[in-house]
Amino acid sequence: MKGSTDVLNTWKRWMWPSSLKARLTIVILLSSAIPLLLIGIISSYAIDNVESNVRDGVISTLKQVRIDTEKTLEMLDFASRQFVTINGTVGGGLRELFEAERNNTYFEFFRETNKVRERFTLVGFTNPNVGVMFYHMPDQDKIMFENRTIGTDFQPDRMPMLTDRKVYQNFGPHPTVSQGQDALVLSIYREVEQIDSKPVYIYIETHLDLLKELFRRDKYGVDTIHILTDAAGQVMYSDDRERYPTGSLQPRFLKEAASDDHYDFYYEKSRQGWQVIAGVHKAGFNQAKTGWTIRYALVGIFTLAVSLLLGWAIWRTVYRPLIQFSREIKAMGTNIHHELSDQDRMAEFNVLFVQFDQMRRQVLELFLEVERKERRKQELEVEKLLVQINPHFLHNTLNTIQWLARMQGNDDIDKLVSVFTRVLHYNLGKEGGIVKIKEEVQALEDYVSLQRIRYDYEFDVRIIVTAETLEVPIPRFVLQPLVENALYHGLRDEGGMIEVHIRHSRNDMVEVTVRDNGAGMSEETKARLLLPDTGERRKSGLGIGLRFVDRMMKMHYGEAFGLQVESELGEGTTMRLRIPTGEGKLEQPQGGEQHD
Q1: How far apart are CA 584 and CA 580, in angstroms?
Q2: What is the tens place of the pLDDT at every residue in 484-498?
Q3: What is this structure's pTM?
Q4: Helix, strand, coil shares of the chain as percentages rounded to 5?
């Protein structure tokens, strides 16, 4: 039971995940797939019925072609009957014509001739589908009363016989006997009642465009050919004479739904036995099916586009604001001062963003409070270091004055006290925490003068400052601790040298370098040089001034501008400071009253 429950829960999680993005994706896919599936089913059903619809259409049209052909032959039969009885309306007068010709009564002959011609005209007028008409006397090879010019070679025994009804024959389709024309026609050849033992026949054919209209190939909506056969299956007419030439015997047309590699055949059989056959070209039929497929594919593509448009609208309405909200949270995580973007949103999301902005402002205030407390703490640390440094410095200086007072005269003491006063005034001055480099260098030179007297000029200090850096602002009391550390912990007993370089570097920076040629320090000593104060460090004096410089630089310029120390045992030590010179780079520390 538990196993089936786990499977069900797994299936639910897979089909309906907890992520809004995944759920929206599933909904969009379903909204696109369901209409496409329905259209696909309808399209498949419609395409499956294309062949049946085409077949039914071809059979229906072909039946009409057969009926029209039968009506045409019946029309020829009806028209010919008006000529076969010499006592009839049209046939009458033919006997009188022959009698007048035999008696050489020319007036009567011409009168009867005109009567026959008038009757031919009447039949042609009342039967618009009739074309060429004339009497034929085969024993004399004589044609009479033709309504059009006839070619010289009229041989009815060579014409393709469609049906033989004993009293008349239907020919065709065959070329018209009208001179100068090449159209195909149907015709009838019928014997008239004998006159004075003279055989006479009436010949009538359809007009030139009738057969073309009957066997028009564009009736079916697909590429189709026509074949007309007699009762024996002999081809009387063919649109494809290469495959099914006229006069060839095709017994398979007698079979129902005969076909070959190129055509599917459908037929209609007349009461007289002849057949009219329609051959649907398979390539044309496939083209029709392809047309259906393309139309349904276009409908499917349109439906998919509409579904995707609706899905995009859902995404824009719901998911996009959530993504934006997530970005705002991430942006606030990297920058607490980040302001929310002002965009048009739904009312529900606007409420959410307003509440989030209120929370952001509260967090910002907390961060600022923490930052103010941290700055105050840093200032107290700096003041603590100053308290540690100044008594140490005063103690050493006073010892030097005491030693000089014992060993030398008053002039030297006066000079020493004078320099010491300036240094003391600068170190303990209340003129502010920011000075110019030229002031810091002057105080450093006074300090070096004091130390030279103390160490009996056993070391050399070289101060090199470029002129363009003299007016650059700098935190007060950052150079002296660097030189002092080099004196106390870096120089050898003899030949010691300290170089101080202050110059412009790249990216609007002033670089301060203090280098000595002393004993250097190990990596371990260098690693703990700027660590928080300890009793051991306070006892040895190691790094107290350096830590003050490091904290002072970071307090004014940021964490990236602390003191850099480079040192190797036996190779000396180098201290580096970078001071930004861009506008607004140096500010007084915030969070409390300035202390010096």
Answers
A1: 9
A2: 888 877 676 667 889
A3: 0.46
A4: 55, 20, 25
